[in-house]
Design brief:
- The chain is an alpha+beta fold.
- The protein contains 11 helices and 6 strands.
- The protein has one domain: Up-down Bundle (Outer membrane efflux proteins (OEP)), CATH 1.20.1600.
- The strands form 2 sheets. Strands 2-3-5-6 form a 4-stranded antiparallel β-sheet, with no helix packed on it.
- Helix 6 packs antiparallel against helix 9.
- The protein is elongated, with a radius of gyration of 39 Å.
Length: 467
């Protein structure tokens, strides 16, 4: 068989195999979509792993598990419980105090440990004596400081509850975004699998054509470089999926015991219908946004602190009752006594008290300015979230049309290549354009869902995802 016949047979084989090479990337098989890249094992790096026996996780399941097991949320819940005890402690200052005091003294000389009660009742002397007493004090009036302290404790508990809501919102938002990011990366991996498969077959064909002298070596090198780039992209996607899977497990309060283990997710990236409303979002944020509630509470807290500082200028009145036993040992003598009365304290002048009142007034003004800043920030966040929703939704629709156009262009280039009228480079460009369109589509889908999460986070309505 002469050389011309060999070249002809080789070209026919290339054309025949070419019909099987350039399949539409969207037709990447389910087996390919479920594989995990083996490149990491060959390079001594981590590869993505998945357990077939693991039940698929829905987004709602992940959120419920995160709210149940995440230690950050448990920490915030303990802060609320501690706030309840602070209220009990502040209210307990209304109640009487009871204490037991004891004393023992040894002196070199005798001492009148019981003074003379009258001219006919002499004092009692001893160089060794002791006593014990039971003392009860009851606060009657403290300038309103005790009642204000209870109100302050309640407000600080409310702040702890708002901090709990803030932590909860962050946890929900991060869990949703991590879940959706894995879904996006898995779709990109499917497209990357298709691209790698097509490039591997193209390299084989280019090698055959190069062997028979139909293409230059530089064309073969271009294909090999492109294949290496696609393989690296696939490997990067595998690592990205593994990292996001670790993040999702961390948010759910799980410990990472298997490196690169990816949970099976049951939900899909979608384009939910949603119509944002600025005025409604602002009203909802005033009721539910933790940052706004904290800023509002800080103003009330500053007002109560001012009342407490002002209360230090008012008189304080308390009652007391004491029972006492006294003992002398040389000679031995014992005497019991009791007494009761009232204590009145009237502050006349204390400069630091006036300075503290002035300080609390300044802090209240500061808290009011902080609330203004929070309001402006919330309005900006709402506007930004609505803008992101509109922009990303438009990109989703545009990317969907781009996929149809890229798919049609790829089909045309494939037919031209099969008929011998097209060039390999044009076919590769069409294939790359299709994969890029798919990537842009799922990126826009992820951005839209992330913008929706941001909108609900701004308004404090993230718990809608739990319903």
């Amino acid at each position: 068989m002469n050389r011309t016949a060999q070249q002809l047979i080789t070209i026919i084989l290339v054309i025949l195999t070419g019909n099987l090479i350039f399949l539409i990337p969207a037709a990447c098989t389910q087996e390919m979509a479920s594989e995990r890249s083996q490149m990491g094992g060959q390079q001594g790096l981590t590869s993505v792993q998945s357990h077939a026996q693991e039940e698929p996780l829905s987004l709602k399941t992940c959120l419920n598990k995160a709210l149940k097991d995440n230690p950050l949320l448990s920490e915030a819940q303990l802060g609320v419980k501690a706030g309840e005890k602070v209220i009990d402690s502040a209210w307990g200052k209304h109640l009487p105090k009871l204490s037991l005091d004891a004393n023992y003294t040894k002196r070199q000389d005798s001492w009148p440990y019981i003074p003379a009660e009258s001219a006919s009742l002499a004092p009692h002397f001893s160089d060794e004596f002791s006593s014990w007493s039971l003392v009860m004090t009851l606060p009657i009036y403290q300038g309103g400081q005790v009642a204000a302290g209870v109100e302050l404790a309640k407000l600080r508990k409310a702040t702890q509850e708002s901090n709990l809501s803030l932590t909860k919102n962050e946890l929900i938002a991060n869990t949703i975004n991590a879940y959706n990011k894995i879904l996006q990366l898995q779709k990109l991996r499917e497209a990357a699998c298709s691209s790698v498969s097509a490039m591997e077959n193209q390299r084989k064909n280019s090698r055959l054509l190069y062997d028979v002298g139909r293409v230059a070596k530089v064309d073969l090198l271009k294909v090999e470089v492109q294949l290496a780039n696609e393989q690296q992209r696939l490997f990067s996607l595998d690592e990205g999926i593994a990292n996001m899977a670790g993040m999702l497990r961390y948010l759910m309060g799980e410990k990472i015991v298997v490196l690169g283990e990816v949970p099976v997710l049951s939900d899909k990236l979608a384009l939910p219908e949603f119509t944002p409303d600025f005025d409604l979002a602002w009203k909802t944020a005033q009721k539910k946004r933790p940052e706004y509630l904290i800023a509002s509470t800080n103003i009330q807290e500053a007002e109560i602190n001012k009342k407490i500082a002002l209360g230090k200028l008012f008189p304080s009145l308390s009652a007391f009752a004491v029972y006492m036993d006294q003992y002398g040992y040389t000679p031995y003598y014992k005497e019991a006594n009791y007494f009761a009365g009232f204590n009145l304290s009237m502050p006349l002048f204390e400069k630091s008290a006036y300075d503290e009142i002035a300080k609390e007034r300044i802090l209240k003004s500061k808290a009011e300015k902080r609330l203004d800043a929070v309001e402006n920030q919330i309005r900006l966040d709402i506007q930004t979230a609505i803008s992101s929703l509109r922009e990303s939704k438009n990109r989703v629709l545009t990317a969907g049309q781009a996929i149809e156009q890229a798919e049609e262009s790829f089909r045309i280039e494939q037919n031209k290549y099969e008929s011998g009228a097209g060039a390999t480079v044009d076919l590769l460009f069409a294939q790359t354009a299709y994969i890029t369109a798919v990537a842009n589509h799922y990126q826009a889908l992820f951005d839209y869902n992330a913008a929706l999460v941001s909108y609900r986070k701004v308004t404090g309505a993230l718990e809608e995802y739990l319903q």
